[in-house]
């Protein structure tokens, strides 16, 4: 229960850094569900411990039934996650592309894009060529990508596409 609580809290905390990319506010719902499951698991663990100490057949039977229901719920969640993974991927990529389109180097969305690229060591949604279709790429005049695309160890990176090894 403590481990699940930590994971749920970590996901919610991480969500705050990337909430501009996720227009659907229900994206944090899995983390809330994880925390709720942690609370329920703590209560169920207490029931199991009390039933064991009292050697109660009814309590142990209830504990077994609850554990089976939780197992079925976990399998269902896994199957739903597997089935809908492509939809989530497509939705997130579409939202990211729209945020990248608004990039101008100054607005709050630009700060989030720069932070994301620096933290994840990436450039663009899929790769640096995603920038070629944005207003930023055409408005810079020198057809470059933001400096947040540069590798951290690249000393003379200018963001030009003629130096893709530095991106």
TrEMBL record:
It comes from the Eukaryota. It is a multi-pass membrane protein. Signal peptide: none annotated. The chain crosses the membrane at residues 27-53, 60-84. Keywords: Membrane, Transmembrane, Transmembrane helix. It is found in: Membrane. GO terms for cellular component: plasma membrane. The keyword Transmembrane applies. The keyword Transmembrane helix applies. InterPro entries: Tetraspanin/Peripherin, Tetraspanin_EC2_sf. Pfam families: Tetraspanin. PANTHER family: TETRASPANIN, TETRASPANIN-36. This is TSN36 protein. It comes from Cephalopterus ornatus (Amazonian umbrellabird). The gene is Tspan36.
């Amino acid at each position: 229960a403590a481990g699940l609580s930590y994971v749920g809290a970590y996901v919610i905390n991480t969500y705050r850094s990337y909430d501009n990319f996720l227009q659907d506010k229900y994206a944090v719902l899995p983390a809330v569900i994880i925390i709720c499951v942690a609370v329920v698991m703590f209560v169920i663990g207490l029931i199991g411990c009390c039933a064991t100490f009292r050697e109660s057949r009814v309590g142990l039977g209830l504990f077994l039934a609850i554990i089976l229901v939780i197992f079925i719920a976990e399998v269902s969640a896994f199957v739903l996650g597997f089935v809908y993974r492509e939809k989530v991927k497509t939705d997130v990529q579409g939202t990211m592309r729209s945020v990248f389109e608004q990039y101008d180097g100054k607005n709050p969305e630009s700060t989030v894009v720069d932070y994301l690229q620096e933290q994840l060591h990436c450039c663009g949604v899929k790769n640096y060529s995603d920038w070629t279709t944005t207003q930023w790429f055409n408005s810079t005049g020198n057809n470059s990508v933001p400096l947040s695309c540069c590798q951290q160890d690249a000393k003379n990176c200018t963001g030009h596409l003629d130096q893709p090894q530095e991106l």
